[in-house]
Write a structure and sequence with these properties.
59% helix, three-stranded mixed sheet, mainly alpha, 8 helices, two-stranded antiparallel sheet
Length: 342
């Protein structure tokens, strides 16, 4: 089984033929369900390059807004005496960290692969997400500790007008950041989106809490209780991120894919009689890999390139799997030197 070979574009690409009207056709295109035009692949490649630049700009703008609001909430929380605002500023710190890591990971992912790192630097986002998880857990514990202390000793009165104003500004900024991030799909960008979404909920809760405490000054316990709720939101996001990171590092089949259904679909290709040693895993967000052995009937052994083109095109079009390593073998192949058989 051939794992780890870097994919060289063009090394196994079939040559084009001239179809009706002088149009260029590629093997596999005429199969309909299993075909994808070469020009579509080129447009997808160009779109990916353009998308990387757009992603970097969106992440950069979101990071700038997050950092500004984080400082405003920290200062506002200290001046107003609101632990909820200070907690939210800490939450914004993790948002800024997540966005910063997503920005670095997006930049690293644009670096080309080499002989040592045949997949490039795409796993950098997973390493960044691990650091982010650690920060989230530490922050949630600190906020919970401070909230419990505030419940025991409320401290000086809170300046509710300043608390409400800063929370309102934070809410507006969070909504703007969510708008910038809604089109991002990388692991770190999605985790940052969840952070900002929970921070938006926190801003709404803080704003509502300031209004309630303004009406009922005796309800000062609302501030530390809101802080505890924010800590739980942070911890919930950390757990979700831990599960996703674990799936990637364990090279699990992505949750949205069914390995059995994909194997059955591959067997539908003319000439393929069986599929085994099928592995599907995630290199990084948006980059799925697949390796498998294709058993072909004796009469199709001379159609290797055609079968490869049809199967690879179908996997790319149906499931978004663009990095594939396929071994073609006859039904009589004995697997003499194989160590693992699945």
């Amino acid at each position: 089984m051939s794992h780890g070979h870097p994919h060289v574009h063009g090394a196994h690409e079939p040559s084009a033929t001239t179809g009706p009207g002088g149009a260029r056709e590629w093997p596999g295109e005429q199969h309909g369900a299993c075909g994808l035009h070469h020009a579509d692949h080129e447009r997808a490649h160009q779109h990916g390059a353009h998308g990387a630049g757009t992603s970097l700009r969106r992440l950069g703008i979101s990071l700038g807004l997050t950092a500004a609001i984080m400082v405003a909430e920290a200062v506002g929380g200290w001046m107003s005496g609101s632990l909820a605002l200070v907690s939210d500023a800490g939450h914004m710190l993790t948002d800024a960290g997540a966005l910063g890591l997503a920005l670095v990971a997006a930049w690293l992912s644009t670096r080309p692969a080499d002989d040592k790192r045949t997949f490039g630097y795409r796993r950098a986002e997973v390493l960044g997400a691990q650091l982010n998880v650690g920060a989230l857990v530490v922050l949630s514990v600190w906020i919970a500790w401070e909230a419990v202390q505030r419940l025991r000793d409320p401290g000086p009165p809170i300046r509710l007008e300043l608390m409400a104003f800063v929370a309102g500004v934070g809410l507006a900024a969070n909504l703007a950041i969510l708008w910038f991030l809604h089109g991002e799909h990388s692991l770190n960008a999605r985790s940052a989106f969840l952070h900002v979404l929970s921070d938006t909920i926190s801003s709404v809760a803080i704003l509502a809490g300031a209004v309630v405490m303004g009406i009922r000054p005796d309800l000062r316990w609302i501030d530390p209780v809101l802080s505890l709720a924010i800590a739980l939101l942070i911890l919930w996001g950390a757990v979700r991120l831990i599960l996703e990171i674990t799936d990637i590092l364990m090279e699990s089949v992505p949750a949205h894919l069914d390995a059995g259904a994909i194997g059955a679909q591959m067997e539908c290709c003319p000439g393929v009689v069986a599929v085994h040693d099928l592995h599907i895993w995630t290199i990084s967000s948006g980059m799925l890999s697949l390796s498998a052995h294709l058993v072909v009937e004796a009469g199709s052994m001379g159609r290797n390139d055609e079968i490869l083109t049809a199967v690879k095109s179908d996997l790319r079009r149906r499931y978004g799997i663009v990095h594939t390593t396929l071994q073609i073998e006859s039904a009589e192949y004995a697997h003499v030197d194989d160590v693992h058989r699945h």
